[in-house]
Amino acid sequence: MTGSGIFGNRNFVLLWSGNAISLIGFHGVRIAYPLLALAITGSAALAGWVGFAISLPALIFQIPAGIAADRWDRRTIMIACQTAGLAAACSAWLVIVLDLPEPGLLLIAAAFVEGTAFVFFGMSELAMIRDIVDISQRPTAFSLFEAEQPIALVIGRAVGAAAYGLARWVPFVADAVTYLVCLCTLASIKVAPARPRRDRGSPESTPATLRTGAHLVFSEPFLRSSTVISGLSNIVIQVVILLTIVDIERSEQPVWVAGVVLGAAGVGGIIGSAVAAGLARRFGAQQLYRWSLWCWSVLLIPVALSPHPLVVGAAWFGIGAVGVVVNIALTLFRVERIPEEVLGRAVGMVSMLTDGAVAFGAMIAGYLLSVFDTSATGWMMVTVMCALAVAGSTTGTAPDRTTVKSP
Description:
Layout: H1 10-41, H2 44-55, H3 57-60, H4 62-71, H5 74-98, H6 103-132, H7 138-166, H8 170-188, H9 206-218, H10 221-250, H11 255-305, H12 309-337, H13 343-371, H14 374-394
Helix pairs in contact: 1-2, 1-6, 1-7, 1-8, 2-6, 4-6, 4-13, 5-6, 5-8, 7-11, 7-12, 9-13, 10-11, 10-12, 10-13, 10-14, 11-12, 11-14
């Protein structure tokens, strides 16, 4: 952990840059997998299953990934994840060039492996940042950590779609190359051997692990309220995403317009990550979280009022910027308050609840928009978000500098 600012920390720069490159490849194939399944099999249903397969691990493996990050060497886990992702990308490439039998099942398996590697890597990366970065530099480090996703999302979607247009196999070869780059950066990180974790010798059962994670999250007032309200606000955002797509489709705009409009959230996220650390230091996670709920409430109003792409795109820019700022603030709060030896399980529980809400949000959105028009649905979401803002402003105040005690 050397000086000259966060970019003077060689280990962090290697970790962050390697994963940022790998994430671009991953988000590129998130588009390419369902497109390839549809092109090869002609089945839209199978394309949907492939898309589901790459997302499913985020719902089911957050707790196991947290356990792994708590108990085992984090760099070893990340190297294993990148190796598995590399194998999956190469498998998808072989499906194309060798015209293998049962391509749909092979693509589902490859997508599932990549999604699983993504979840386990992300949890270990979060924990490892605390291992290699001084406390004074953590706000900046976690700002860069959160910036990885919107940057990779914007670049990966664009590059993935363009690469697929060149040839079906190109996104998967590019994905494999990014995994190799990340493996090289991970191998170059110089860290001391992992310290034995206090609970490594007595592994918990799954129910016990869930109880541990739940206790850590729900015993701290702000962690409890922010987790529940974040899950509910994620449902609202998922409804608004589908609402945006339906509005653009019904207005007979080109398909790419939806990508540009929703991609504005990623651009906003990049801007938000640049100012998040300073805001977190000045105002603290709790204040920023409450403000974010009110900001989202206001930003949803133009979405409900107008389907015009410029109006909706501007709103999504703001939604993305606010989202990254508050995500960084919440990450800093969790890392500061949760003991190191149980950080993975606690964050895994939070992620399981909030990511699970994303899946429910997509399902609820379909039903709402089949019954109500987009304007009515938009105003419903404004109302719900305002209610969440009121709840967030009146519940879950945590005392300053109190560490959550592990059971």
